[in-house]
Design brief:
globular; about 35% helix; alpha/beta; two-stranded antiparallel sheet; binds NADP nicotinamide-adenine-dinucleotide phosphate
Length: about 270
Amino acid sequence: MRTVRLPDGTLVPVLGQGTWPMGANTALRANEIAALRLGIDLGMTLIDTAEDYSAGEAEKVVAAAISGQRERAFIVTKVHPFNASFPLKMPAACEGSLKRLRTDCIDLYLLHWWRGQLPELRCHVPLSEIVGGFEMLKQAGKIKRWGVSNFARDEMIMLQTCPGGVRCTTNQVPYSLNARGIERDLLPTANYPIMAYSPIRVVPKSAVINAIATRHGVSPAQIALAWVIRHQNVIAIPKSGNVAYTRENAAAADIQLTQQDYGELEVEFRL
Ligand SMILES: NC(=O)c1ccc[n+]([C@@H]2O[C@H](COP(=O)([O-])OP(=O)(O)OC[C@H]3O[C@@H](n4cnc5c(N)ncnc54)[C@H](OP(=O)(O)O)[C@@H]3O)[C@@H](O)[C@H]2O)c1
């Protein structure tokens, strides 16, 4: 599978796997684990989760999926803004994730921030403290690298002016045919890889996508995914709780969209 180079030179697959809301329903757990394991076999070795997903249960699903093959996986998890203070809460939150993931080091640890949070959920910890905390966890060998999620362009500028802020590995943001906002500001100026979440979920049913999918002999979701990863520095993390979707998603990395396809999608899904 095509790879994307992280700022420290590490290569990760252009397609990873999301995990929200895995672990919430125990009846689905075996299928979720099987889907993640198949995804790893098919090259989608980057797995995105968070301490917040299903109150920690998603991290436990990931632990089961990587059991016996930890070295094949690149684990991304996230610290909730409530737990971002350092040294008050972040080290304990990180230990909690490590324990649930049954690993001793997180490959990429993200600040799980988002705009428009309720006032009581907003992150009141200064960015410089969060960056300092991430760097301390790195020195302690608990995480290999760190990043953020849902940072707007102005927030990325603020981050990169903090001491150590330029060491941010990624910004995880929504990006799909139906959510193209980052093309206006973040994407053209990003000197780091963007991690695109919800690449399929918010794409509406469309006769145009269906026709393109038929031409390629693939599914509409695969077209939506292939479109998201057309950029050199964009990684997409579709979530699938079943092996059939997982197979489709991995195969989307091989789809070559044509100029005609891009043109039609551009008209249907205007920026
Ligand atoms: N940082 C953040 O704030 C943030 C926010 C949202 C999400 N995320 C991360 O990004 C991941 C992906 O985003 P998402 O889960 O919102 O949306 P998504 O991956 O775009 O869509 C997931 C939905 O699409 C379905 N699906 C998967 N593959 C499919 C296929 N080939 N054909 C048809 N349907 C398919 C899934 O079905 P099943 O239900 O059957 O699996 C699920 O209902 C999350 O799981 C999470 O890890 C991060």
